Amino acid sequence: MVASIKPNRDEVGLTDGLMLIDGKRIAALAGQTWSHSHPATGEEVASFPVAGAQDVDLAVRAARRAFDAGPWPQARARERIRVLRKIADLIREHGDELLKLQALDNSVPLSFGSVYATSSAFVADVFDHHAGWVDKLAGETLPPYQGGDHMVFTLREPVGVVGAVIPWNAPLLLFAQKVAPALAAGCTIVLKPSEYATFAVLRLAALIEEAGLPAGALNIVTGPGDPTGDALINHPMVDKLSFTGSRAVGRRIVAASADRFKRVSLELGGKSPALVFADADVSTAAAITMGTVTLGLSGQVCLAQTRALVHREVHDEFLAMAEMISGMVSYGNPFDPAVTSSPLINTRQMDRVLGLIAEGQAAGARLVCGGSRSEGDLAAGNFVAPTLFTDVSNDMSIAREEIFGPVLSVIPFTDEDEAIRIANDTEYGLAATVWTNDIKRAFRMTKAIRAGTVGINGYQLEPHAAFGGYGQSGLGREGGRGAIESYTEVKTVLLPFTDEMM
Ligand code: NAD
After folding, report:
1. pLDDT, tens digit (0-9, with 9 covering 90-100), for 410-448
2. Ligand 1 pocket check: which of 177, 246, 472 to mutate, most ligand atoms within 8 Å of Cβ?
3. Which of 59, 70, 259 is nearest to 165 (CA)?
4. Which residues are designated catalytic?
5. CB count in 10 Å sphere of residue 437
6. Residue ranges in 32-150 assigned as alpha helix (H)
């Protein structure tokens, strides 16, 4: 049996799931709550408030006041840097506790927390990285275009109140990627976590308060898309919407922005290819590619390399290693250090994944392993066995849909042109990996692939590197200069020195 994951509240620092509005911990005005069922066991873990339109209005008004009256947007660079660095320190200090809460949210195993991109250290580094931007967020001085005695320069000012909505798969990291640049730029925020991953975010918000952020600068409203998310994205006092999640909700965000032309950043899904050439280290390519769809979050990752485009010469070698990796996956209680991978987040998602697997089989793809729900001791949770398909053609739904589960589709190819054509034949464009020991080929492929990030013989997220998508994988980038600048407006200042300019 999967051991119970009922929390020892003291051990994990689980609070009562109250929202954070204007520096106060509060329940929803209507008293509505959401009870969180753990994906590994179906047990109820704890509950939290469902914010209605009135609660969201309170939160947005608090953020608006904190923006208009300050003190955060007007704070000196030195003060903002101090608070952001303190947040990073507190995250490091409470790293284990945050990861335990995240495991209570979405069942991502604690063993996975030692992988840099999913660790508390990474979350802390995102705050440190953005702290470093605060005193470098400069405008520019331009030479006069028409001559004359005057100056033209630009200022970067905070965009205003940010409404942020994040998904459940990496709540700590995704929280940081929105909150850190927004705070660094001097914005105030109302953030809604996913209804499937709320507790780690509430704790992280408490650490941010402890670091000295003024009341109202960060507000957390909890609850599902309807009514909570909907009220937030449609609120007229929000200046910018920053969203990570599915394309379907992304479209709603864009629609909600239209009325007042709210600024928008979107991090959406992916159907990323791994291109494996015959001259590559095929075993490593297979191990890492299969790992991205089975280890940790079991493929519930936007950048999972879910389409393996494999040269026909090395197809069998790739398949053998990928199948071996699937045999190393261990499911169970996320607190058990031997557990490598998580269940699917809810039964709806599990049914969707099983439905897509059935479609793949019906379309003629060859199932190498997996393909069904895990039974026996795991029957109470949403576990699907690691699944490997080959002889997949790129027009099958398993090659086109973002499955968000432990499913790898292998698509054989013959030459570079065919590999590029298949790689780019997708509505998405988030990430890709090229596996080859030929440096010239690596660069040819990198230039030809239309994706926001391309890894060569590996893939590693970096807090200071831009991350985002081409096509329907999103709008804008997180990480790096582009991210912080997306939380600013540019103001041009014209300063004449002579009367003829007037
Ligand atoms: P989702 O779109 O269903 O939900 C995301 C968030 O939107 C949740 O907080 C949800 O409550 C909220 N929401 C739902 N309906 C809403 C509405 N009408 N108005 C406002 N908010 C609403 O996505 P999910 O299932 O939580 O997460 C999986 C998706 O996230 C995948 O598509 C994945 O690729 C994507 N994702 C992308 C990245 C990236 O950086 N590109 C990172 C992680 C996840």
Report:
1. 999 999 999 999 999 999 999 999 999 999 999 999 999
2. 246
3. 59
4. 267, 302
5. 12
6. 53-68, 77-93, 95-106, 120-131
